[in-house]
Hints:
InterPro entries: Bystin. One of its GO terms (molecular function) is snoRNA binding. With 141 residues, this protein is mostly helical. It is built from 7 helices and no strands.
Amino acid sequence: MEGDKCCIIETCKDELLWYTTSFFIKLLLEKKYALPYRVLDATVAHFMRFLEDSRMMPVIWHQSLLAFVQRYKNELRKEDKDNLRNLLEKQRHKLVTPEVLRELNNSRNRGEKEDDLMALTWVPKEVTLYVLLREMQSHAF
């Protein structure tokens, strides 16, 4: 498990293999480890590298971002969430981006107590994960 945590950090640093990196990041994040903040911060930094990238990111990149946000949304700082929202304005996917935004908007920030969630505004799910996965399977991406 400790090796996987180090692997996440090293994988996030790799700039040359960004497409393949997305596969590995998604795979490691789906193991649902309790990760130290430095690993979470490195993962946010990895995604933020694509803020000014003019390339259209592949679906796997968006899926790895969704997996990250779904699992660790309550461990992200407010500024990280704001930065990821800015990123999603430039790197959009018609099916995945609404899910990522919904997860970011319906979560507490790092350090907030569970009771603080009651202060959040509820936003209805635009696309359920089931529909999202079904749509992705039915389209050739």
